[in-house]
Amino acid sequence: MLLVPETDFGTPASRAEKLVTLTIDGREITVPEGTSIMRASMEAGIQVPKLCATDMVDAFGSCRLCLIEIDGRNGTPASCTTPVAPGLVVHTQTARLKDIRKGVMELYISDHPLDCLTCAANGDCELQDMAGAVGLRDVRYGYDGNNHVKARDGDGTNARWMPKDESNPYFTYDPSKCIVCSRCVRACEEVQGTFALTIEGRGFESRVSPGQHEDFLSSECVSCGACVQACPTATLTEKSVISIGQPEHSVVTTCAYCGVGCSFKAEMRGEELVRMVPWKDGQANRGHSCVKGRFAYGYSTHKERILHPMIREKVTDPWREVSWEEALAHTAAEFRRIQYQYGRESIGGITSSRCTNEETYLVQKLIRAGFRNNNVDTCARVCHSPTGYGLGQAFGTSAGTQNFDSVEQTDVVIVIGANPTDGHPVFGSRLKKRLQQGAKLIVIDPRRIDLVRSPHVEAAFHLPLRPGTNVAVVTALAHVIVTEGLCDENFIRNRCDWSEFEDWAGFVSEERHSPEATEALTGVPADALRGAARLFATGGNGSIYYGLGVTEHSQGSTTVMAIANLAMATGNIGRPGVGVNPLRGQNNVQGSCDMGSFPHELPGYRHVSDDATRDIFEKLWGVTISDEPGLRIPNMLDAAVDGSFKGLYIQGEDILQSDPDTKHVAAGLAAMECVVVQDLFLNETANYAHVFLPGSTFLEKDGTFTNAERRINRVRKVMTPRNGYADWEVTQNLARAMGLSWTYTHPSQIMDEIAATTPSFAKVSYAYLEEKGSVQWPCNEAAPEGSPIMHVDGFVRGKGKFIRTEYVATDEKTGPRFPLLLTTGRILSQYNVGAQTRRTENVVWHEEDRLEIHPHDAELRGIRDGDWVRLASRSGDTTLRALITDRVATGVVYTTFHHPTTQANVITTDFSDWATNCPEYKVTAVQISPSNGPSEWQAEYEDQARRSRRIAAKLEAAE
Q1: Within a 10 A sphere around the Cβ of 897, how many other Cβ atoms?
Q2: Which residues, other chains included, contact 182 with Cβ-Cβ below 8 Å and sequence gap of 6+?
Q3: Which of 640, 651, 723, 857 has its CA 20 to 30 A from that of 443?
Q4: Helix, strand, or coil (residue 176)
Q5: Where are the beta strands (DSSP E) in 446-593?
Q6: pLDDT band (50, 70, 90) for residue 450
Q7: How far apart (Å, rounded) are the C-alpha atoms in residues 848 and 842?
Q8: DSSP 851
Q9: What is the pLDDT, as a whole number, of residue 560?
């Protein structure tokens, strides 16, 4: 999708249904009530000069360029702040307005450097454009630099030029170019919700400031880019634009980071990416972005990226670069040998939640049609597989119920086990905006995340539960709602199985589930829990957003079902502003599940034992599909250690760093005879690989991602794959090497096959996505426009199912040796295992994983902030530096897992969810003690990793 420049209508669109007709410059125009005259004019193609106005933020009315005349009214009001009214007669171009606008522009230009030819914004400067629009040809007031760009000593003397602020790695701030339009300040407040910027000084010395004598890097700025995007001059400019120049074309694509699925314009010069700009028509992000999607794309050209296939006989050998033909032929031969020697079930594959739907579909097809088994799994196993099971049991579908727009109509929000401002920051900004408008928030988390209390947002309740007690807390909330008569009986009788509800209600009403009875277990004060339950049940539209802090537990599936129970009991399903919403971690984790990446399910969540479903694929593929579920990732590793599983094809996942109990993962990989890794970099898993197939970035391929709201978004190729092939082509070539006759020439053909075989995708095609922009599944004859809200008239399974949720304590217990509980999470600037973000300038914000520890626990152990500490569990130990903070409770410690030098998962155990084997990352009994530096295991691991990444050609060159 090549784009023409987007129109900025100056003010946001009105959502009113009532229409108003007025006359502008002799033309009769009809628009929704509440629309500004500026927007009405712009929508009709009548250009009104503007500088302070942009449709991403509310009208401000400060620049005085957009003045108009209205018949029967005195003066010249600003068109951006003047709403339409029936029968108005408006003039946007008169001799009087021309003189006023020219005078205003003279004042702006007199306070602005006239270095347009060498300015980075030349060709993309609204000040320059407006000077032309108003016909400015000369300026009566000279520019001598003696204005707001100067800084003075304390006594007011010795004026000097204020230097540019180059502290942020991605953009520069040049105060001499600032026209004090406040667009950046308003974008920071209204779009991002951070309030990091202000206008400092008075008169000619006014300028944007990121804080009290702070630079941008050390301020509260989160580098989302909203201020840069809003700036009409070169005051805030991407450093990439300064170094490369202005882009000459753009292509809309979808971000490859978190599950929000933001749409971006990749702005290009030829095949060189100049910048990523959030697309205003993106239905998931509505023109907003975060630091990762906006700026952290440099990994695509990083020097460590592998661009040539490589093979080696043993993992202790150096890698040897080979041709694609040799690499694929070698892989196919090895897989055939292993199956001949050890049996059909001795090999399998892992699909990627970072690759497209089409690529994921082909991997599971290769395994089922080529390997002839169901040994396929995906990273969702270790994150959201309990979502699939729990919501499938309660509602009949394993996905979130709402679109992101729904948050704008919510009244009470429960955020449990999620940290939206760090993990899903664009959605987090939308949530903060709704909270600032008056919605109430309940946070259920052992850690005080930013949403609990910040200068502009504060939760009504924070329930700081003890890790591992989610089920007890949610059931206690239900106890209050049921015993106090706060259920929505009408909804339950009409939409759910009443007898199952009665059984569940009797269960949760038992005294052992009361807040008072569970307080000692969960650590949540009974009064706070009762208050939260009453607020959720009586506060209006209630929505629940949850993350890995719910699913990554031994009772992850049980907690998901408990959340579903809570939503049904209060009638919060099936309309805007409510619902159960899993916040998916990776960009296509929803899609990887949709595409049949689990060993027991074919695409569309249909069990492999279903004869009719298998028949669809068998006829199309021309093979017989096994009706027995295959091995999950943990089972593959166990079988490898036992000697029966010998070969693994891994597309785009780093299981050595991301999966639990690192030593066990390493042992499983080491026991295999052919491990094939397809990725961008020699990741940690590649330390144990025998074949490396270079992957392609999202910038180098066509396809689709499906985000956390089930939105299917197009991914569009903006440059030629640097490795020679898109990932789907690599998989197809491997399939051909194994004897399959695949003939796809474009990913659109793969999507056509998905649509033909998967009911929820029946109407999806690339042509349809081009027409609609994006759609949310199910998209079929019953829902041709897609399904923004699920379960509107009834649940997919028929009647909603209430399920008893008995709390069962995890087998992971604290004790004298390991008295603390470790839980893990993410940070804003980094993503997942860090393979992408660690190879960008984002490391300036998070260059290492730190262990958060409460001051009391630190004092008991003689640990100071910044000290090296040994973190040990029953599984292993590692070292990292301490961060003393009261964000965690006593008895709880917390760390991120973005850096392989820490290898936090060497600590986590092999305990997992009872239904899905999702690992229990969030509850690990640990002890911490002072340390002098890296552990023995870390030193050994670092040495093994270094030796594993040797490449023969580079070794020869070095010699």
Answers
A1: 23
A2: 52, 60, 62, 199
A3: 857
A4: helix
A5: 453-454, 457-458, 461-463, 542-546, 579-582
A6: very high
A7: 11
A8: E
A9: 94
Strands 453-454 and 691-694: unpaired
Is the predicted pLDDT of residue 1 greater than 60, yes or no? no
Is the Cβ–Cβ distance between 262 and 192 less than 8 Å? Answer: no
CA atoms within 13 A on the CB side of 560: 34
Q: What is the rounded average pLDDT of the residues 3-7?
A: 64
- Which ranges of 841-924 would DSSP assign to H, the alpha helix? 855-860
In the three-class reduction of DSSP (H, G, I as helix; E, B as strand; rest coil), residue 91 is classed as: strand
Q: What tokens were used for 341?
A: 């020697």
Backbone angles phi, psi at 759, to 5 degrees: -55, -40
C-alpha triplet 240, 242, 247: angle, nearest 5°: 65
DSSP 89: E
Q: Which residues pair with 457 in a beta bridge?
A: 454
Q: State how far the Cα of 612 lies from the Cα of 625, in Å rounded to an integer.
A: 12
Q: Look at the block and give the residue holding tokens 């890995």.
A: 548
At 5, the pLDDT band (50, 70, 90 cuts) reads low
Mutual angle of helices 470-483 and 515-522, in 10-degree steps: 170
For 85-106, write each residue's pLDDT tens digit. Answer: 999 999 999 999 999 999 999 8
Q: Which of 888, 175, 50, 876 is nearest to 467 (CA)?
A: 888
**pLDDT of 745-782, one tens digit each?**
999 999 999 999 999 999 999 999 999 999 999 999 99
Q: How many CB atoms lie within 10 A of CB 71?
A: 10
267 forms beta bridges with 250, 275
Mean pLDDT within 283-308: 94
Q: Which two tokens stand for residue 582?
A: 């899993």
Are 179 and 232 contacting, i.e. CB atoms less than 8 angstroms apart? yes
